[in-house]
Structures are given as structure tokens and as C-alpha cells.
């Protein structure tokens, strides 16, 4: 009888357990000699048996189609060397049977031509798949148990790498980029994607969705999230790996992400063209300037202009560019910046009573939610509340409670972030052109409003204001030589004005 023999392994473990290709081939050739079977060809694979998409087996099928061989049997050592899928086994067996080819196994072979053996054949064909499923289940359970112990059994996230010796994840060279990502997004001064693009230019390659997933991953604060599975609830476990950021920074980033996930309308084109609209006054009549575009010979040209009968009108593109130059003239005096620290400390002290009141109110709201949860539990246990209503109520309470606790944590930890807030304030003023240029339209308005408590006047390619921010004037002064060191176009009025920046940009909220 003419036959072909087929051997297969998938992992080194199978090789070590006696399923090596040479061992299988030896057994098959010995069987063929003892039963007078002539071997036409030998096909082998080092592939998984979940399907028949394997190089060796595909070559066997091509040889059959091209009629290079005409075997009566395909001989394998055992069922799982042929296939580990019941459905795949049945389909392939029927296909080969139509070609007049019988499948023969050295171990537990069943004559499928006999009606009474069909059930036994089906059982033998299903056993490898059952074994596969059991192995997968054991592996999955093992991985979940490892995660409960604080270990990460998967490929390490960006910023970490898998240590093959200790079997734990350790920080990689990319960790500094991950930390910078969280710090920059937490500032909420520019778009999240602009932060990603900047990191890409520095060598940290990450796609848009990968970047968002990175910012949401609690792994970076030292926590492993275990998803719910079957009757097991989701869990948050403290990992044994070293966190890259603290809880406070992670929470701030989540607040930024949540605020940006809310439905927002795309800024109108005119808003992008006229970021200074609402911050400029007419130099002639003093009324607020508006903005619009006029059609020229080949394109539209944007202008800021007055609507009160004045002839005040100037090109918006040029004015926007000159405003960035104007911001670049603000130079932080390192000596005077020490005074900034004292002013901020005074501001923190003034807000202390308000903060205590806010803390008390947040704790009261959290206690009220806890009471609602206990009430829902009692109603559920007494049968008054149906399962679906109970789950919906508890889910809503938990979401509110999580948001309140995040706000509570920010208020409780704000004094400990004083130094970082100070450094941020100094850096912001030192790099105003950079932050302003990369900010969204809304943030641009906040930056302008935090620097100038009154509107600007654009006159002869320069800016001036009668109501500057006293704090900016103070921190950008150059002691006795302040007036001589700053160009006339950037000089501030000595008049009294409020220096506190509006909510949304001051260090206490960043």
C-alpha cells in the first residue's frame, strides 16, 4: 500500500516530552516496514495544530492536486499530531476521504468505515481540542494568579521591559518619555496630540490610540488592573514593579482626559484666525475691535478692525505674529522670582479656609453616597430591588464617588505640590511664546487673560496696555535697570491692578 507519513511539533516542550520530529518519523517508518507499506513522501511541520494552514501540510495538498503522489493512507503517530480542532479534523477527513485517502494513527486508531466506530472516532478527534482548551484555561488562570501577586505576565508596557532573570518588569530608557507625557498632559496647556508629536520627535514612537491608552493605564502608578472574568470581579492590585508616576499626577491626567472626552465643537475658522479677538481695543475710540476676512485678488485676508466709524484696521496675521514676539520679550528675573514664592504662599494661606470648606463638603457628599449604597444593599437583600435596578444604581453611585474622591485627593495633596507649582509658574512665564503657540484657542484666551487684566492696544506694530498683571510686571522686572532692559513696546503701566490669574490657569488648579 502506498502511503505518506506526516509528523508535527509546535513547541520545544513537546519536543522534550517525546514528540520530537525524529522520534515520530522513526516510529512511522518502523510501522510501514512491519506492515509492508511503501512511503511515497514524508511531510513535516513545526506549527500549531489549531488549523491546517501549515507549510508542510499545504505542500502535501498541492502534491495531491498536481497528482505528484497517489497515496492510499496518511499515517500519523496520534490524533493530536494531525489536528487539535474537532471541526478542522472532520472537514479535512471528509476532504481526503473523497480523494480516496484514509487517515491512520499508530495510537488509538479507529476504523471510521464501520458505523459502530463513528462515535469513538469523534471522541478521539475531540480529545486534542479538549486538551488544548484545558491548557489554555490553566495558562489563563496562572496568569491571573500571577497578576494578583503583583506580577505582570505579559509583554511590558512602554517605559518598561521584561527582565528575563528576575521575571519582573523594570524601567527602560523610554521611562523618561512616559513621565514627561503625564507631566505635559496634566498641565492642560495644549492638545494631547501635540504632546505625542513632540515625544515622537524625541524618539518615543507611539500612535494616537496607543498614547491615549498609555495615559489611562494605572500600571504607571504601580497598579495592575485585572479584568472581570466569568464570576470573578475586576480587581486593582498593587504591583511589585516600580511606578513611574505618583497617584496625584495620574489623577490629574484622568481629569484632563475626562474633560476633553466631553462632546466639544470644533473651533470655528474665524476663532483660529483671530485668537486676539476680544482682547484688543481701538487706539482711536477705545472700543473693542472685531475681526473679519476680506476677499483679495487671490484669497481672503484676515483683519482686526473697529465698527464704531473709526478707520482702525490692520492685518490679523501680522498682528498675531507680532504678539508672539511681544510675549518673547518677557524675561523672568531669577532674583525677583523668589518674591513670587512669597506671594504664592500668601495666596495659599488666603485660600486655606476655602479649601477646608470644600474638603468638608466633598466628604459630606461621599458619606451621602455611602449611605445610598447601604440603602440599596438592604433593599436588594430584602428582595425589594431587582438585580438590574440594583446594578445600575450601584454603578452610578460608584462613578460619582470616584469623581468626588479624585477631587478630594487633589485638594488634600495641593499643599505638597507647592514647589512643583512654583516651578511650573516660572517655566510658563519663561516660555510664554512656546506655550501660547501650541495652545488651543480656549487656552490662548486664558493665557492672554491671565497676563493682562485689561485689553491691549495695537499701535505702530507694537502692543501696550493700561492694565497689566502686577505679578507679571513684578517677576519680569529687572530691578533698577528694569525700564532700560525692556523695549518700550513691552513696558507696563505703574497703575494699580489685580494680578491674580483667572481660574483655569493659576498654579492652584494645575
In short:
This protein is α/β, with parallel strands linked by helices and 510 residues long.
Notes on the structure:
The chain has helices spanning 12-19, 21-34, 55-65, 79-82, 86-98, 118-148, 175-187, 192-201, 208-216, 247-261, 269-273, 316-328, 337-350, 352-381, 387-413, 418-430, 432-438, 441-451, 470-475, 482-485, and strands at residues 2-9, 38-46, 73-76, 102-105, 160-162, 169-171, 223-226, 235-238, 280-281, 290-295, 300-305, 313-315, 456-459, 462-465. With 510 residues, it is α/β, with parallel strands linked by helices. It has four domains: 2-135, 3-Layer(aba) Sandwich (Rossmann fold), CATH 3.40.50.1390; 160-261, Putative Large Serine Recombinase, Chain B, Domain 2 (Hect, E3 ligase catalytic domain fold); 269-328 and 431-509, no CATH class; 337-421. The model is unreliable at 479-510 (pLDDT under 50).
Chain-averaged pLDDT: 79
Please compute the radius of gyration using only Cα atoms: 36 Å
**Annotation field: number of helices:** 20
Counting DSSP E segments of at least 2 residues, the number of strands comes to 14
Question: Which stretches are poorly predicted, pLDDT < 50 over at least 5 residues?
Answer: 479-510
For the largest beta-sheet, the strand count, sense and barrel status come to: 4 strands, parallel
When the domains are counted, the total is: 4
How far is it from the N-terminal to the C-terminal residue, by CA? 82 Å
* Main sheet: strand order: 2-1-3-4
Strand percentage, roughly? 5-15%
Briefly note the structural class of the backbone: alpha/beta
Globally, the shape reads elongated
- The portion of residues assigned to helices is 40-55%
Amino acid at each position: 500500500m502506498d502511503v505518506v507519513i506526516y509528523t508535527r511539533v509546535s513547541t520545544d516542550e513537546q519536543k522534550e516530552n517525546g514528540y520530537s520530529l525524529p522520534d515520530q518519523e522513526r516510529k512511522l517508518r518502523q510501522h510501514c516496514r512491519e506492515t509492508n507499506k511503501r512511503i511515497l513522501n514524508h511531510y513535516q511541520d513545526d506549527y500549531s495544530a489549531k488549523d491546517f494552514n501549515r507549510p508542510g501540510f499545504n505542500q502535501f495538498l498541492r502534491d495531491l492536486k498536481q497528482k505528484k503522489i497517489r497515496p492510499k493512507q496518511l499515517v500519523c503517530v496520534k490524533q493530536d499530531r494531525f489536528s487539535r480542532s474537532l471541526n478542522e479534523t472532520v472537514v479535512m477527513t471528509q476532504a481526503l476521504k473523497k480523494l480516496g485517502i484514509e487517515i491512520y494513527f499508530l495510537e488509538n486508531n479507529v476504523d471510521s468505515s464501520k458505523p459502530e466506530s463513528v462515535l469513538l472516532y469523534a471522541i478521539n478527534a475531540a480529545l486534542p481540542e479538549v486538551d488544548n482548551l484545558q491548557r489554555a484555561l490553566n495558562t489563563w488562570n496562572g496568569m491571573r494568579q500571577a497578576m494578583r501577586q503583583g506580577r505582570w505576565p505579559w509583554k511590558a508596557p512602554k517605559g518598561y521591559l521584561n527582565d528575563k532573570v528576575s521575571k519582573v518588569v523594570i524601567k527602560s530608557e523610554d521611562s523618561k518619555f512616559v513621565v514627561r507625557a503625564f507631566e505635559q498632559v496634566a498641565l492642560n496647556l495644549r492638545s494631547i496630540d501635540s504632546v505625542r508629536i513632540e515625544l515622537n520627535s524625541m524618539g518615543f514612537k507611539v500612535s494616537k490610540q496607543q498614547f491615549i491608552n498609555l495615559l489611562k493605564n494605572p500600571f504607571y502608578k504601580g497598579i495592575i488592573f485585572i479584568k472581570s472574568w466569568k464570576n470573578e470581579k475586576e480587581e486593582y492590585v498593587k504591583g511589585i514593579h516600580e511606578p513611574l508616576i505618583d497617584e496625584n499626577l495620574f489623577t490629574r491626567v484622568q481629569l484632563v482626559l475626562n474633560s476633553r472626552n466631553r462632546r466639544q465643537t470644533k473651533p470655528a475658522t474665524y476663532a483660529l484666525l483671530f485668537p486676539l479677538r476680544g482682547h484688543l481695543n481701538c487706539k482711536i475710540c477705545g472700543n473693542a475691535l472685531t475681526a473679519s476676512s476680506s476677499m483679495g485678488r487671490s484669497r481672503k485676508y484676515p483683519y482686526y478692525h473697529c465698527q464704531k466709524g473709526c478707520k482702525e484696521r490692520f492685518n490679523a496675521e501680522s498682528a498675531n505674529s507680532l504678539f508672539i514676539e511681544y510675549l518673547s520679550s518677557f524675561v523672568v528675573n531669577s532674583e525677583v522670582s523668589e518674591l513670587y514664592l512669597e506671594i504664592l504662599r500668601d495666596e495659599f494661606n488666603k485660600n486655606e479656609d476655602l479649601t477646608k470648606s470644600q474638603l468638608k463638603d466633598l466628604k459630606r457628599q461621599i458619606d451621602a453616597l455611602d449611605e445610598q449604597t447601604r440603602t440599596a444593599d438592604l433593599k436588594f437583600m430584602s428582595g425589594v430591588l431587582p438585580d438590574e435596578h440594583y446594578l445600575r444604581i450601584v454603578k452610578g453611585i460608584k462613578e460619582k464617588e470616584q469623581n468626588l474622591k479624585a477631587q478630594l485627593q487633589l485638594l488634600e495633596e495641593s499643599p505638597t505640590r507647592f514647589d512643583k507649582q512654583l516651578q511650573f509658574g516660572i517655566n510658563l512665564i519663561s516660555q510664554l511664546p512656546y506655550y501660547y503657540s501650541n495652545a488651543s484657542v480656549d487656552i490662548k484666551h486664558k493665557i492672554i487673560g491671565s497676563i493682562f487684566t485689561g485689553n491691549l492696544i495695537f499701535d505702530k506694530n507694537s502692543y501696550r496696555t493700561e492694565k497689566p498683571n502686577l505679578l507679571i510686571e513684578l517677576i519680569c522686572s529687572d530691578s533698577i535697570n528694569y525700564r532700560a532692559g525692556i523695549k518700550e513696546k513691552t513696558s507696563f503701566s505703574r497703575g494699580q491692578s489685580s494680578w491674580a490669574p483667572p481660574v483655569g490657569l493659576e498654579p492652584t488648579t494645575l
